[in-house]
Amino acid sequence: MINQTMMQLGKKRSVIRDIFEYANSRRAQIGAENVFDFSLGNPNVPAPEIVNRTIRELLDTQDDASLHGYTSAQGAAPVRKAIADNLNERFGTAFHADNLYMTCGAAASLRITLTALSAEGDEVIVFTPYFPEYGVFASTAGMKLVEVSSDAATFQIDFEKLGAALTPSTKAVIVNSPNNPSGVVYTEETIRRLSDLLAQREKEYGHPIYLISDEPYRELVYDGIEVPYLTKYYQNTIVCYSYSKSLSLPGERIGYILVPDEVCDSKDLYAAVCGAGRALGYVCAPSMMQQVVAKATGQVADLNIYRENRDLIYNALTQYGFTCIHPDGAFYLFVKSPVEDAVAFYEKAKEFDLMLVPADSFGTPGFVRIAYCVSTEMIRRSLPAFQTLAQAYGLS
Ligand code: PLP
Predict the structure, then answer these.
(1) Which among 201, 274, 257 has a CA at the least distance from the CA of 234?
(2) What is the pLDDT of residues 295-330, one digit of tens each?
(3) Which of the chain's termini has less CB crowding within 10 Å, N or C?
(4) 364 within 8 A of 151, measured Cβ to Cβ
């Protein structure tokens, strides 16, 4: 018999995929310009100029074997060194090439990391709302996902709830700041309190609790907001990074795992990361892209467009009477459904050809997510539809 869990996983379409298919059918019926699709977190801003320039230079200057050949399983050493050097320059850290394992994006980074850490009965804590794939990655790595609700007003960590959720079975805690889907960035105070609490529980339980920082949106922040670099606050931090959003390269599948020297049993953990990469078939991340990100690391796609989009949609929707979380980062707006059932609200929005994502699968019923990584012009055209939607609920 085939693997039933995998079969179910393959058959089950995500809500976002369903919306995507529905939006496509509406485009065919009424014309693309009349469909306002806010469902996908697919960056619409072009990659920074250095990306395509580097690809052209590589094509012109390198032979096929060095450009398209295998690198070492954990990624080419000069690439890992270039990334470590850039991080050290930006964050005052002391990383080196052997702290890094190159991956096919944050999804692979997370899946490998959880596999490297997991033992029978281990729990991994996530804060709602969270990226729904965490559930898939944790369960397939043999871990139990434990959801902890965030503070209802600020979407920062609710420390009372976290305190109650931590147990001797807690192996890891995943944080994602800037957050998909809320756009919230954890403050330095939140990070300090989190670090203190985890350190205290490590002592109490007599084993490490790993903090996994899932940070594909690290550079996507507005108004000079700082995103604390977690390895500087908490010893047992592992970073899962991706260039999908910062460099607008989601289809190129490139990112990394960072296991700093300070982490407990760092060398063994790094070996376990290499082992998990091997076991999962995630070795040698795309070799040309490794070279591209080594050149472009630390650079960011055009944030001005995202900021303009954020201001436009946040200001308009709040003016129409919707309650929205103010996003300091990423490119998502989290909107409170005017009725308890966010799926009903999402269905109503579809009547106006507004494609939103109900946040039930993010662990936060009663909200919808709007991905504003779309053209500013589409947002402008969609505003009358949002206003009519607000009126349908008596909001404006
Ligand atoms: N983590 C979060 C919070 C995300 O939003 C995403 C993608 O949207 C991922 C991980 C996966 O990123 P990647 O495309 O690099 O695999």
Answers:
(1) 201
(2) 999 899 998 999 999 999 999 999 999 999 999 999
(3) N
(4) no
d(CA 5, CA 8) in angstroms, rounded, equals 5
From the list 358, 345, 354, the residue with the least C-alpha distance to 381 is 354
Kindly report whether the global pTM for this prediction surpasses the value 0.70: yes
Which of ligand 1's atoms lies nearest the C-alpha of 250? Answer: 14
Which pLDDT value is given to residue 137?
97
Q: Which of 332, 312, 331, 334 shows the shortest CA–CA distance to 322?
A: 334
Residues with Cβ within 6 A of ligand 1? Answer: 41, 105-107, 131, 176, 180, 214, 216, 242, 244, 250, 255
Residue 338 has pLDDT above 90, yes or no: yes
- Distance from C-alpha of 246 to C-alpha of 379, rounded to nearest angstrom: 21
Distance between CA atoms of residues 229 and 177, nearest Å: 10
CA separation for the pair 250, 321 (Å, rounded) = 34
Tell me the pLDDT tens digit for each residue of 143-200: 999 999 999 999 999 999 999 999 999 999 999 999 999 999 999 999 999 999 999 9
Helix or strand (DSSP H, E) at 191: helix 188-205
All structural domains of the chain, each given as residue ranges with its CATH number in brackets, are 4-48+301-392 (3.90.1150.10), 69-296 (3.40.640.10)
What is the rounded CA–CA span in Å between residue 339 and residue 332? 20
* Residue 247: strand pairing partners: none
Amino acid, single-letter form, for residue 180: N
What would the pLDDT profile of 73-127 be if each residue is shown by its tens digit?
Answer: 999 999 999 999 999 999 999 999 999 999 999 999 999 999 999 999 999 999 9
> In whole angstroms, what is the distance from residue 49 CA to residue 303 CA?
14
Give the Å distance between the CA of 60 and the centre of ligand 1: 32
